[in-house]
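Need tokens for this chain, all 122 residues.
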Amino acid sequence: MSDNSSYALNFRALQTAGWNITAIFSLAIAVNAAMVILMSMGLTVPTIAFTVLVVFINLMPILGINSSIDDMRATLQDLSEEERKMNRYKNWLNAPFIMYRVIIIVGFGGTGAGLLFALFAG
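Here are the structure tokens for all 122 residues:
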């Protein structure tokens, strides 16, 4: 495989992982916002169905984004020495992926717990 072909494949793999993270995150935020709006309007919601939805909508982004982070890390580990020296990858090579995972887990886990608390306490 030529160097240009390898560069293109690595760049495309990182781009795909980045778009996956963005799409999953955006969809989960939109659905959570809709659920918060429904609850704040005082509409009655079926408790069991809403509980399952809250858990699912907040668990799936955690799993999906963590999987995409793993894909991104695997691609970064496959970079050649020449690619590692490129400015395009320097920020990603030094990215604090553990912190990103913690933020995602705390963010979506906290949102789900807050929604469930509001559902059952209210």
